[in-house]
What does this fold into?
Amino acid sequence: MAAMATEDEHLLIVGTYSENLGFVDGKGKGLYAFRLTSSGTFGAATFLNKPLLGNDVVGANPTYLCKSVTHDDVLYVVDESNLERGARVRAIRVDKDACTAVPLGESLATGDSSACHVAATETHVYVANYCGGAEGAGSCAAFHVGGDGSLKSDASEADLLQDASALRRLSALGKFVVPKNGDPERQDKAHAHMCLLSSNGTLLVPDLGADVVWRLNAPSLTPMAVACKCDDGDGPRHAAWHPSLDVLYVLTELSCRLLAFRVCRQTGKPLDKTPFASSRTLPRECYPPSSVNAPPSRPKSTCAALVVHPSGKFAYASNRAIGVDGLVSVISLSEDGAPFTSMHVTTGGRTPREIALVGSDLLLVANQDSSTILSFAIDQKTGALAK
It folds into this structure.
């Protein structure tokens, strides 16, 4: 999801799946657009539920989006597909008042498959590929941004498999070892799940397979070091900065925890080797008593998305429970940034894959398997959510 501000409301652009990929049975037809008022109410779906841009333009699975840093009418969207040259990424230009969109330049090959996240700077766009290559390991790709916001191909005759200016497979960063107490099905390979930037442009990449967050030079993607080391079986998925402290929050998909690391916001350099605090995202009774980071089993659940409120007082994480509606965890943050999960709110649907803040007043929750989006008003003192 990406919210683009207009004069008195927001235009919400929503990505979808159209294919059955095993973990999702997609029924979408492309990118959709909705009007969202400042009070959190939705207008009628634009075009009577017809897509803003169809699969013929944005690919079969246009899932993650991000806004351009320099052009307020440009978005970048990845196609989470397994094509001959990997997944795709492209720029689109949106007329927020007319609620129309057109492709901007060509769609480019990311070099590997299952592109699952995209982030932008003034000069480059970065894509996380969950898997790919001969060994199936994930990677990160960098793309040049043109003056008009479009993406530029750097394909050469020597490497026709991708258009990126740089491609870094995580398996090349060090000898991969399956975590001793990890998930053998999900952690048999390195898997990039997000691209997050520090203030100076250093790239941080959560690796679900290796239980680390990598630190890469950008835009060259040359390796630097491990920024954060999680416990075996954590499966780091997403990360987010505290708005003012040198604290990096890492959301673990498999163990359903929020870890707080001391990391320099400017450089992405770790200040400590281990997290200084952590909090489970689900109620205590959901977890077995055997281990501090054992995954929840009552019911089985995985975490998906993380956002930190601009006040720095609270954060939100989505939990995808199996067979029941999901939950959003409301996580209080102390003065030193330590997290404490204080309450839970049902998402009113199955598999809340994505959450997004609209300013400081609203939280949006997208339920993947229910095909619904809910808006919640945020209590500015407590972080509590209300429909």
Observations:
- Helices lie at 55-58.
- The first strand starts at residue 2 and ends at 5.
- The radius of gyration is 19 Å.
- The first helix runs from residue 55 to 58.
